[in-house]
Design goal:
Helix content is 33%, strand content 9%. By secondary structure, the chain is α/β, with parallel strands linked by helices. 40% of the residues are buried.
């Protein structure tokens, strides 16, 4: 058992109690997705990794998971205002030994409860000591138990480069959570952290990934025209699934414009695989935090949609949002809002439009656009054919024509007229934080005999979707929106 200052007590909790405490403490981290890589089975070793993965369980807050999502320890020397595990909170503390965590992961995997491991941690003593514990646990899994399943490891800010390299060769994906979108917010809510301690490991991971891939590519090059025997690469690849990060939305007054500019810089300059947005959930009482207990889930959803447009649809930040309108529209999705602002480009003819233009039509995604191009090679497309292709004709019909015929019916082709048709509340779906009940028949950790508790912290209750104008404490200076420039020490 560990105290908040890292001192070890004589008696400690059992492994089941540790799991109860540390799995519950990890539930607020949203940057946990499918692996993104493929790795087949190997004789003498255990596990495979699929790019998509499958979900086995729901956490108490409604997230569908296929990973054992747990902290190495909830002991932390930092005192971040928004964190339930902060030093000043009076909560139950626990720390896994590396062997306990490895054995627990293997036991869950063999029972098909999980597909892999999502491992994070509070800062036990120092970042290096914490990372050493994580490296020891993953080394047991990889080398001693021969585990080939997916592992996502959180890099602790301030860790030495040597330990980062060791961790990167054991994990499939790594992440360093930025947590807050600007240096001013970081200074206010997480004074123990610095911009350098966050950006430096991100750059180190990005450079190491690029170097590792380049080295692998060189070794695969043919040295002769004659057939050559393939020599397998013995060293484990460095973070083959890339790195990600997370930002808390709503705890500080940064606009969506500022947040998306920072995300764009992370994608272009640090080759980030994914940026996650987590609506601020009030778990602490602190004068530096918003007084409202509302959760901005709709705003989080719109940010994910805008992020998707940047990563897969070829949109620039300036096309999605601008400084004059710094917040995303909560009633219309970002792609439809862009189309409403560029009606001069619409409607487009689906039988002649190129791929890039089709992808910008609301209701038509990359897959649908490619299906349209492939189908129109053999015959002209009408409304019936478009339905068979599988596009969302409910939205797309107002922005396309089929053989010169507009499908919008009697709707006025104007911003006001079309906006009335496209305005809709956000549907939270059948899982996620809007739907805390698990699907009938799905397993949960309760079914495994493992309960969840708040570890002594008061859980957020009666939270509701809030307007983006919720009360937020004023910052001492204006928050800049200049990408990574705002993070320079």
């Amino acid at each position: 058992m560990y105290l908040a200052d890292g001192r070890k007590t004589v008696e400690g909790p059992s492994i089941a109690e540790k799991l109860e405490i540390l799995a519950d403490a990890a539930k607020y981290d949203v940057s946990c997705t499918s692996s993104g890589i493929e790795r087949s089975a190997q004789q003498g070793r255990l596990g495979t990794t699929m790019a998509a993965g499958c979900c086995h369980s729901f956490t108490p807050d409604g997230r569908c998971i296929c990973l054992l999502k747990v902290l190495m320890s909830n002991v932390c020397t930092y005192d971040c205002a928004y964190c339930v595990n902060r030093r000043s909170n009076d909560v139950k503390r626990a720390t896994f030994t590396p062997r306990e965590l490895a054995d627990l992961t293997m036991a869950f995997y063999r029972r098909n409860y999980i597909e892999g491991l999502f491992l994070s941690s509070g800062v036990v003593g120092s970042p290096d000591h914490t990372t050493e514990l994580m490296v020891q646990a993953l080394t047991i899994l990889r080398d001693e138990y021969g585990f080939r399943g997916y592992i996502h490891a959180k890099a602790i800010p301030g860790t030495s480069p040597e330990l980062l390299d060791m961790l990167g060769h054991l994990a499939d994906r790594m992440s360093v959570n930025m947590e807050l979108p600007s240096q001013q917010s970081l200074d206010r809510l997480a004074p123990d952290k610095s911009s350098h301690s966050l950006i430096a490991p991100m750059r180190r991971i990005a450079d190491s990934i690029a170097q590792d891939r380049e080295t692998h590519a060189i070794t695969r090059q043919a040295r002769s025209r004659l057939p050559q025997r393939h020599v397998p690469w013995k060293d484990r690849a460095y973070v083959p699934a890339g790195q990600s990060t997370q930002m808390i939305i709503g705890a500080t007054p940064e606009s969506d414009y500022s947040i998306l500019n920072l995300s764009s810089a992370l994608y272009t300059k640090l080759s980030m695989k994914r940026v996650f947005y987590s609506a601020y959930i009030p778990v602490n009482s602190d004068w530096r935090l918003p007084s409202s207990r509302a959760v901005q889930l709709d705003r989080e959803h719109r940010l994910f949609q805008a992020d998707w447009l940047m990563r897969f649809y070829g949109f620039d930040v300036g096309e999605i949002i601008d400084e004059e309108h710094p917040m995303l529209d909560l009633l219309v999705d970002p792609k439809a809002n862009w189309a409403l602002n560029h009606l001069d480009d619409f409607p487009v003819e689906v039988n002649t439009a190129d791929l890039e233009l089709l992808m910008r039509v609301p209701g038509i995604g990359p897959t649908g656009a490619r299906r349209i191009i492939r189908a129109r090679k053999s015959h002209a497309l009408g409304e019936l054919e478009l339905r068979k292709v599988g596009i969302a004709l409910k939205r797309a019909r107002y922005f396309i024509t089929c053989n010169g015929v507009w499908l919008g019916g009697g709707v006025d082709f104007s911003r006001e007229g079309l906006r009335g048709r496209l305005t809709a509340t956000i549907d939270g779906g059948r899982h996620g934080r809007r739907h805390p009940k698990r699907i009938e028949g799905q397993m949960s950790f309760e079914d495994l005999g493992v309960g969840f508790s708040t570890g002594g912290a008061e859980p957020p209750i009666d939270v509701a979707v809030a307007d983006v104008r919720q009360e937020v404490p004023a910052m001492p200076e204006q928050v800049p929106a200049a990408g990574l420039k705002a993070w320079r020490p």
